[in-house]
Automatic annotation (TrEMBL):
This is L-type lectin-like domain-containing protein. Its main location: membrane. Residues 1-22 form the signal peptide. Keywords: Membrane, Signal, Transmembrane, Transmembrane helix. GO terms for cellular component: COPII-coated ER to Golgi transport vesicle; endoplasmic reticulum membrane; endoplasmic reticulum-Golgi intermediate compartment; Golgi membrane. One of its GO terms (molecular function) is D-mannose binding. It is found in: Membrane. Residues 258-281 are annotated as: Disordered. It comes from the Eukaryota. One of its GO terms (biological process) is endoplasmic reticulum to Golgi vesicle-mediated transport. Residues 31-255 form the L-type lectin-like domain.
Length: 320
């Protein structure tokens, strides 16, 4: 029983090791969580402050449910901003949000920011205009954008000098975007996932159709130049029309490419040293037993020959 248990344990450990190796070899991109840019319930410390984020304006924090940037009331502005910049070269930010209200007419929307400056109130979804960096706008009210279905999600790359034109819903400064009608009053948790690889790609995915189902909003192989020192922020505003704009959670990760395992380049060279060693060891044992068998056979043959010789000598001695 003890031997069986030991063998079972060894087999289990071997299986687990193989599974870990397979996971490492299959995964191309690895991720490390960024605590400095992550927001989870209860959001605040014991002294009712956040260690990593500042908040202001009309923002209300309910520690067991949400961070409400603005409530369903006219003329509100609210924001939250990271206290430290996001300096990772490659990163992924996933935010769960909720835009909801009871009115048939509603507005205006909220924004996600990765900009050089932080915590400045202004007319662009509650934050400052002429920003430098990246803004992702979740626009729920259509001003003048023919042929586009709202709500509309749009990315804008700011150079610090160009203004966002609210009257045309940012048409002339749009970097990329998509319609996302289901992000307001959703039946499933609504999420946005922004993935950035420096000089390689920028991708935005949305979850609003079904839980666990991600819809590609846009992806580009020529990403914009985001400032090396950029702060993460969220802001929202309401005008004459309003909605509740809630941030439920924010998860940030630093991404890096996993090292590739070496591959054999010639036929037959893929056998590992361990396999070769095992084969060599097996061959050694086989040769060892072969030598014992041959030795025994030779001794037995010599004994039989010697016995026959003695018998012949005895017959000769009796004959004379």
């Amino acid at each position: 029983m003890l031997l069986t248990s030991a063998l079972s344990a060894c087999l289990w450990l071997a299986t687990a090791a193989r599974a870990a190796i397979a996971t490492d070899e299959d995964g191309q991109v690895k991720a490390i969580g960024l605590r400095t840019h992550t927001l989870q319930q209860p959001y605040l410390d014991s002294d009712m402050q956040s260690r990593w984020f500042d908040f202001g304006g009309d923002t209300v924090i309910r520690t067991d449910q949400y961070i409400r940037l603005v409530s369903d009331r006219p003329s509100q502005t609210g924001w939250i901003w990271s206290r430290v910049p996001l300096t990772a070269t490659n990163w992924e930010i996933e935010v769960e949000f909720k835009i909801h209200g009871k009115n048939q007419l509603f507005g205006d929307g909220f924004a996600m920011w990765l900009t050089k400056d932080r915590a400045k109130t202004g007319p662009v979804f509650g934050s400052a205009d002429n920003f430098e960096g990246l803004g992702i706008f979740f626009d729920t009210y259509k001003n003048n954008r023919p042929g586009v279905v709202f709500p509309f999600v749009m990315a804008m790359v700011g150079d610090g000098k160009t203004s966002y034109d609210k009257d045309t819903d940012g048409k002339n400064t749009e970097f990329a975007g998509c319609s996302a009608r289901g992000i307001r009053n959703p039946s499933v948790p609504t999420k946005a996932r922004l993935t950035y690889f420096q000089d390689k790609s920028l991708k935005l995915e949305l979850q609003y159709k079904a839980e666990g189902e991600w819809t590609l909003c846009f992806e580009t192989e020529q990403p914009p130049a985001i400032p090396q020192v950029a702060y993460l922020g969220f802001s929202a505003e309401t005008g004459e029309l309003s909605d509740n704009h809630d941030i439920i959670s924010v998860t940030a990760k630093n991404l890096y490419m996993a090292s590739q395992p070496s591959r054999p380049t010639t036929p037959g060279s893929g056998r590992s040293k361990k396999a070769a060693s095992t084969k060599k060891s097996g061959g050694s044992w086989t040769w060892f037993f072969t030598k014992i068998f041959l030795g025994a056979f030779a001794i037995g043959g010599a004994y039989v020959g010697w016995t026959a010789y003695r018998a012949q000598q005895n017959r000769r001695s009796h004959r004379f």
